[in-house]
Amino acid sequence: MLESALEGEITDHVGYEKHDPAGKNSGNSHNGTRARSVLTDVGPVQVRVPRDTEGGFEP
């Protein structure tokens, strides 16, 4: 659930859906994910956080 919310945020950040032709040559694109550990009340949880080519996405 958290990862799908993050995907929505990165889509809003770059301005188009992943694999959408509208993003071609836009200068900023979806660029995979990176693993992060989030501390919760039940312990650490591994989350895949999306990234963009410009490196400006911070959830």
Continuous helix count: 1
- Approximately how much helix is present in the residues? 10-25%
Total domain modules: 1
Shape category: elongated
Structural class assignment: alpha+beta
Radius of gyration: 13 Å
Strand order of the largest sheet: 1-2
Mean pLDDT: 91
User: What order do the SSEs take from the amino end to the carboxyl end, as H and E?
Assistant: HEE
N-to-C CA distance: 14 Å
Taken as a percent bin, the fraction of beta residues is 35-45%
* Main sheet overview: 2 strands, antiparallel
Weakly predicted, low-confidence segments = none
Give the number of DSSP strands.
2
Overview of the structural elements:
The chain is α+β, with helices and mostly antiparallel strands and 59 residues long. It has one helix and two strands, in the order αββ. The protein has one helix at 2-14; strands spanning 30-40, 43-52. Strands 1-2 form a two-stranded antiparallel sheet. The radius of gyration is 13 Å and the shape is elongated. Pfam families: Transposase_mut (PF00872).
Summarize the structure.
The protein is an alpha+beta fold.
Secondary-structure blueprint:
Layout: H1 2-14, E1 30-40, E2 43-52
Antiparallel strand pairs: 1-2
Summary keywords:
36% strand, 2 strands, 22% helix, 1 helix, two-stranded antiparallel ribbon, alpha+beta, 59 residues
